[in-house]
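The instructor's notes for this session suggest beginning with a concrete chain rather than abstract definitions. Hand out the sequence below and ask the class to guess, before any prediction is shown, which regions might be ordered.
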Amino acid sequence: MKTLAIILFITMYVFLIALPKRRAIVALCTAAIFVITGILPVTEVFSAVDWNILMMLFGTMVIVDYFIESKMPNLIADKILELAPNVMWVTIFMSLFAGIISAFIDNVATLLMVAPVGLAICKKLKISPVSMIICIAVSSNLQGAATLVGDTTSIMLAGAAKMDFNDFFWMQGKPGMFFAVELGALATVPIMMVMFRKDKEPVKSDEHTEVTDYIPTITMLGHVVFLIVASFFPNKPEITNGVICMVWGIINIVWEIIASKSTDSMWHSLKAIDYDTMLLLSGLFCVIAGITNVGLIDDIAQLMASAGKGNVFLLYTVIVFGSVAVSAFIDNIPYVATMLPVLSSLAAVMTVNPLLLYFGLLVGATLGGNLTPIGASANIAGVGMLRKEGYEVSFGDFMKIGVPFTMTAVIMGYLFVWVFYA
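After discussion, reveal the predicted structure:
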């Protein structure tokens, strides 16, 4: 049974890489085979799926779509542009702005909000938008790991480590992942100043975006505040965060229907949800439960512990930079979903703080996708947007920015997590 599980698991990964547009189908088919063969008993399928994560994703995606449509992000961008004296600082400010937004909103959604503003600026100045869009893309991907709701990988980590919103800021009496990520983000500023030191053309903003609806902004802030408040209540149901996101998403939908006396906005929002990712995760949850049942996760943990030869620092280093290498070419969602239970077992075997390994995984896997244009969905979307504008971005073009940006942020996060959680 274990041999069959290994073969199916490896086959699934091969197809996930070979068929990036069919990831959900691949994962769900593998999960179905697991159930049919008895690797995962049919009675355990429902409990294998992390409904809290799926509910959080669904509710947050609904709120994000309404927030984008309200044009509030564009208004914020206008205000930021008023502070920028030249193109270099526009690039830096837009990158930091994308990062801040990405801490609370999906990475691709963030790119879709901010990148059009960058394109408009570059057209006005008659300069190439390639560098600015790449910086916005990698910044969006970088800061998704800063909070509980910033990225799918963060939500998955929170589920595995039983973390609340506040735990990303302060965990076990120590500064959390938010500060590791922000330290890395700040360290990229001087990198950008060097890379774009020649871009000194003056820029000014003479446009003012009109926000069409303030309710999405209220629901965006509301669901974050409720997640923070819920963090202070111990022993709450595991689906609490998911329910909060779902309820606020429903409130937004109902309010908009009443205000507009139409269901058009509701259907637009529901169509904007990334069902592919949700189905992918559902399948992966079942597959991981299956390989856990047959003892494969424990075997991998024992193998990694042996390879580390009892040296926690060596193991931590391998996890961080190995994750960077893997995530540069492979989507980090299935990778993180697979590694979280492995690291949980590994921490028990080596009697180390599991947060050290969890946070190291998040630093490497989330930031690692910035090395290449295919390593993260935000990068793919950014390169696609540039292609539509007539700019072809090669691996080399992307990596000129992606490599120094990524390695600077990773090294800072790597050192931060080791200092506080080793």
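Then share the key points. Residues 395-421 form the longest helix (27 residues). The chain is about 75% helix and 0% strand.
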